[in-house]
Structure formats: C-alpha cells, structure tokens
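User: I've been trying to design a sequence by hand for this structure and keep getting stuck. Would you show me what you'd pick, starting by listing the structure so we're on the same page?

Assistant: Good idea, let's start from the same input. This is the structure you sent:
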C-alpha cells in the first residue's frame, strides 16, 4: 500500500462528516442516486440525509464499523493528514444468516429523523420502492442461504484520488482490518474467559487452536465491540498488536480460519458497470446482474450487480450464486405499505 496512505478504524463523528462528504462528491452521478433524486440541485442534500440515517442505524448504534482512509501530506509527519475516503461495513447477522440490520423499523425512524421526505417526497418514495425490491430479490434470498456475511455498505473516495490505485489499496486493506478486527476480539475474549475460571466459556475454549474458529461463529450473535475496545490502525498484524505473543496468536488464528466453512463472506451490491468492475478487479466474484424496473415509472434506470468476496476461502461463492438464481426484475405492487419495507442498503 502507498506509504503515504493509511486506513484506520474510527467512531469519530467528525471523521464521519468528512467521509460523508467524500461519498456525496463520489456518488453525485451514481446511477442509484440519480434515479432517487433526478434533480441535481436536491441530490447532495438528500444524499447527506440518507447517508447520515444509514450511519446512525449501523455505525452509530454499534452495529457497523467505519474505516477511514487518511492521506499524509508528508510521509515523515503522520499528524499532517486528511481524509480522502472510507468504507462502512455491516457485520453478519446475529443468527449468522446474511448480514445484520435488515429490519425496516430502525431505518424508517432514521429517515424520518433526517427528513428525507422533506427534501424530496418523490425521492423518498423511490427509496422505498427500490429497497423493497432489493429486499425481495436479493437480501432475503442471500439470508436464506444461511451463510454469515459482511456487507460492504458504502465505499468511496474523493474523485481527485481515483485512477491512482488508491481505491484498490483502500478496499484491500479495509477487508484485512475487518477480518483482523474480529479475530483480535476473539483472542482477547478467550484470554478474559480463561482468567475468570472454569465457566462455560473457559470449557468452550479449552483445547486446540481450532476453537478460535468456533468462537468466530459465536461472535456473529454478539454486538460489535467499540473501536476504543479494539484499537486497529493498520491492516498489518504486527502493527495491530503489541507483544510477540499476541502477534503469533493473531497470525495463527488467521491461518486456521482459512477454509473454515463457518467464516463469513463479503457481499457488495453495486449499481454501475464501473463500480462492478472495480470490485471484480479486487477479488470479488460477480454472481448476478439484475435490471431494476421502477413499478411506477416503468423504466429500467440501472442494473444492480451482486458480487461476493471469499477472503477465508470457504468455497461458498456458488451457494450465494444459487441463492439468487431465481431472482428477477419483477415489478412490486404500488403503493407499498410502510410495514412491508425491509431496508437492505446499497453499496458503491
């Protein structure tokens, strides 16, 4: 990775505001958001409210993580840096089927709180129609595969930094941090339970290193730890831990995770050919490409691409593909009752 660029885990609201503006600039001409808000003059305000609502429900509630890309102006002075992009990830659901936060109520409340309908009533209706379609044709079917999944909710960087390889570096490092975030937490939790005596978790972790893998599946049912609890500022294991013993344990756990069927895959849902090609270039497997037909406007404004990354080599890409084999661009009845919305978010 470029030595002048680093990726950090963050819970700072100020960091989020900067990353959000990176998204607003990057997404201004993005097909999904052009469809939602055709009016260029309203799109940025609508996007800010939409993104803030998603942040509140995921990262703000402790059910997601924000990774920021900092670009150092001087490689010898890391304090002189600025944010040039970021990634929001949502972890596997608590039951290990798909990803978390697919219930509609938290998003519905957040959309009301941030006033999407006040900015554009028509745009808000398009959001509801699209997300209902995505839930029926993508999210529910992927969850039905019973595979734990991370969802790369949003990923973007400032346009001025594109076409320099930084986007690929950002995403690859973010994937590594995402994996190490969970593994480091599992190691810490194992040590804590060993220190408390011979309770259930102590018995659970007695034995060989493969128990780390079982614990990883249990973490799918636990709320995400805070960034303060797990401080990671680099994707490199030796920088994420302080002692040689911790480094060795993390490396061992990462190695043992490879090929384990309980490990999660990473899902990306994209809405442009360029974004889909970006994901493919970074190791994602395309599993379907569906045209979205608006049930009111009756035009296919864009295609929805679904891609899967298998960082732990679980061999479950084909299962995800089979789960979406029956998906189709079927029209949704209109109007859509509010209690039928399930807001599974879209990524870049």
């Amino acid at each position: 990775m470029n030595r002048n660029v680093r990726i950090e885990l963050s819970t700072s609201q100020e960091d989020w505001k900067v990353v959000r503006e990176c998204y607003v600039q990057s997404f201004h001409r993005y097909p999904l958001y052009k469809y939602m808000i055709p009016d260029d003059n309203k799109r940025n305000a609508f996007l800010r409210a939409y993104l803030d609502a998603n942040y509140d429900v995921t990262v703000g509630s402790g059910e997601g993580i924000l990774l920021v890309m900092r670009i150092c102006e001087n490689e010898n002075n890391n304090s002189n840096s600025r944010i040039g992009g970021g990634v929001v990830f949502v972890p596997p659901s608590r039951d290990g089927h798909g990803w978390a936060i697919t219930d509609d109520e938290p998003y519905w409340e957040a959309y009301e709180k941030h006033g999407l309908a006040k900015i554009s009533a028509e745009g808000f209706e398009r959001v509801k129609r699209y997300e209902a379609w995505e839930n029926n044709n993508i999210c529910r079917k992927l969850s039905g595969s019973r595979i734990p999944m991370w969802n790369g909710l949003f990923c973007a960087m400032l346009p001025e930094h594109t076409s320099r390889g930084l986007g690929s570096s950002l995403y690859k490092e973010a994937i590594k941090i995402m994996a190490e975030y969970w593994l480091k937490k599992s190691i810490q939790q194992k040590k804590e339970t060993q220190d408390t005596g011979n309770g259930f978790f102590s018995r659970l972790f007695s034995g060989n290193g493969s128990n780390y893998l079982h614990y990883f599946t249990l973490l799918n049912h636990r709320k995400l730890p805070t960034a303060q609890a797990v401080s990671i500022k680099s994707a490199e294991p030796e920088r994420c831990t302080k002692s040689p013993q911790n480094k060795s344990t993390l490396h061992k756990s990462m190695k043992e995770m490879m090929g384990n069927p309980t490990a999660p895959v990473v899902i990306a849902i994209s809405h442009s050919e360029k974004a889909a090609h970006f994901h493919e270039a970074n190791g994602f497997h395309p599993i379907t490409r569906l045209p979205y037909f608006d049930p009111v406007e009756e035009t296919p404004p864009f295609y929805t691409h679904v891609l899967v990354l298998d960082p732990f080599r679980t061999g479950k890409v084909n299962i995800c593909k089979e789960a979406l084999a029956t998906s189709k661009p079927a029209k949704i009845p209109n109007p859509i009752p509010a209690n039928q919305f399930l807001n599974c978010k879209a990524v870049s």
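That's my pick for every position. To get oriented when you compare it with your attempt: The two ends are 21 Å apart (CA to CA). Residues 200-243, 332-348 have pLDDT under 50 and may be disordered.
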